[in-house]
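User: Sequence in, structure out. Go.
Assistant: Echoing your sequence, followed by the structure tokens.
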Amino acid sequence: MVDPRMLTEPVHPPYAAEGSLLKRLAAEAWDHLWPWSRSAFQRQRAVQAASLALAAAASVAWVLAAMGQLSAGAIIGWWFGWSVFEVLVRLGAKPYVKEGPWWGRRYRRASRMDMVCYVGFKNLLIGAALFIGLKSAGLLLL
């Protein structure tokens, strides 16, 4: 039966329904932080290789920012570029978003706009946490 409250058809990620609470939380954290999937590597090798290279470059940019070698504007630019590319990667590798409250287990197929909103908000939170951490440690000069 179709749920009229869901905008697109339901999706069931492999980790969503099984295991202990700790395993599900760890799997969900991994799902948020690692945009690639094993099956996507088999289908889109060039896109996946480029995304790994861009992820490594964005990580190097954060390390350079922590060392005081990169300005805040440059790191924001790198982070924005990574976010745009992550949308494309996730649409090919993990094309789903959570439906309903964050503690729920309902997922649905993501549209492009769903994925833009998900990745944008997720990376905004991660970037803000990294900026605050670097600034409070005295490593980021603004």
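User: And one key feature?
Assistant: The beta strands are 10-11, 96-98, 107-109.
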